[in-house]
C-alpha cells in the first residue's frame, strides 16, 4: 500500500515509524534498512534513487561476490533493496536493471555519532565515562577528539579533560582537581583554544593553574591543542532564582569585561559565542543543586527498614504540592538520590511498593519485576549509576537500562526534572533500539518527554495512561 492509499498524500517516516505503521513505501523501507545496517552492523550505506523508486546499497568490506555495485567517495556499495522480497545481496529489481540511478548520501552525522560512541566504549573499558549527555566530545582538526568526563581508573571519581585518538590512546590528559566534585562540565573551541567550563566549590586546579572562590564557583579554562593550560578563571556563582542566569563578556585572559545577571525563567544550556574581533561571550545558568559535598566519593546507604516510610512521606508531600499522584513516587525516589554519595537499593523500593501500594505487583508485574532486578542506584559526584543484580539489562516499558548506566539529574525552574543520559539507556523495541538522550518528567500531569536518537526525535507519554496501564 502506498502513502497515497494509506494517508491520501506522500508522507515520509522516521525510521522507527516504519515499524509502527501497518504499511510503508519504498523510501521508508530504505531509510529503516540503512538505519539498522549502520546501527547494528556499523556498515556504511547509501540510498539509491531510481525513477519512481528508492532502494539502498551497503558497503561490505572484503565482499567478492557478484551484484550491482555503486561507487561513492571511493567505496563500492552493493545493491540491497528492502522492497525486493526474497532478493539477495547485489540483486536489483528487473525493471531497474541497468537503469541510471542517483546516489543519496546517508547523513554523515550518523557515522560521526557512531565513531564517537565507539570511542566512548574504548574509554569505558579504561574506567572513564562522559561528563554529561552533551558537550563532552569535540573532533579536532587532526582527526582526533577532545573529551571531558570522569576518570575512575586511579581511585576516587575525578573529572578530566584530554585529547585522544579513536582507539582511546591519549596525547594528553589533565585531571581537574576539585575538593567536592564538578557539575555540568562542557567543552567548546574558539580562537584556536579548547575551553572547558563547569561548576564546582571552593577551588579548581588544572595542571599548574588554580582558581579559588566561595561556596559555588563557575570556572572557565583555556587550553592549547597540545594541552598547555593557558589560563583558568573563576567567577562567583550567585545562587538565587533572580541571578542564576548569567552572561559574561570576557577578555582574552578570561577576565570579565561585562557581566549580566537575570532570572532563571527556562531551561538554559551553556553557550559560548565569539564575535568578529575574537571577544568571547559565555552564558548559561548556575545550578540550584547538583554540586557535590565533601563526601562526594563516600557512599552511604539509608537503612533498608527506613526507606519505605521515607519514600511514602516524601510522596505525600509532593502530592500535597500538586505533583501528579502517578509520578510522585518517581519524584520521591529522585529526591532521595539528591545527595552525592547516596545509595538506594531496588529491594527497598520494592518493599515500599509492597507496604503502601500492594496492588502494584499485580497491576504492573513487569515493572515490579525489573525494579526488583536493580541492585543499587548510587549518586557519586552528582552522577547517578544504576547497577543490576545479575549484570543484565532491566526494562521499563520501552526503556532498556544496562547495568552501569549513568545519568545526570537536573532540576528545572518549573520543578520538573530532566534526566540527562550519559550512557547505557536506550529506547525502542525488539531489535531496533535508539540512544536515549534525555527524559523530562513533568510533575503536574505525569507526562514524560523522551528525546532520543541522533536527530533528537521527541515523543511524549503519560505515565499513568501509557505505561502503568
In short:
With 469 residues, this protein is of the alpha+beta class.
How are the SSEs ordered, and which strands pair?
Blueprint: H1 3-7, H2 15-20, H3 26-41, E1 45-50, E2 53-58, E3 69-72, E4 75-79, E5 102-105, H4 108-125, E6 128-130, E7 137-139, E8 145-151, E9 158-164, E10 170-177, E11 183-190, E12 193-200, E13 203-206, E14 209-212, E15 217-223, E16 229-236, E17 245-250, E18 256-262, E19 271-274, E20 280-285, E21 300-301, H5 307-320, H6 325-336, E22 342-345, H7 346-356, H8 360-363, H9 365-372, E23 374-380, E24 383-388, E25 394-396, E26 399-411, E27 417-429, E28 432-441, E29 447-452, E30 457-462, H10 463-467
Parallel strand pairs: 21-22
Antiparallel strand pairs: 1-2, 1-5, 2-4, 3-4, 6-8, 7-8, 8-9, 9-10, 10-13, 11-12, 12-15, 13-14, 15-16, 17-18, 17-20, 19-20, 22-23, 23-24, 24-26, 25-26, 26-27, 27-28, 28-29, 29-30
Helix pairs in contact: 5-6, 5-7
Number of DSSP-assigned strands: 30
Task: Report strand %.
Answer: 35-45%
Apparent shape: globular
**Span between termini:** 32 Å
- What's the overall average pLDDT, rounded? 82
Structural class: alpha+beta
CA radius of gyration is: 25 Å
Residues in helices, as a percent range: 10-25%
Uncertain residue ranges: 289-299
- Could you describe the largest sheet, including whether it forms a barrel? 10 strands, mixed
Q: Count of DSSP helices?
A: 10
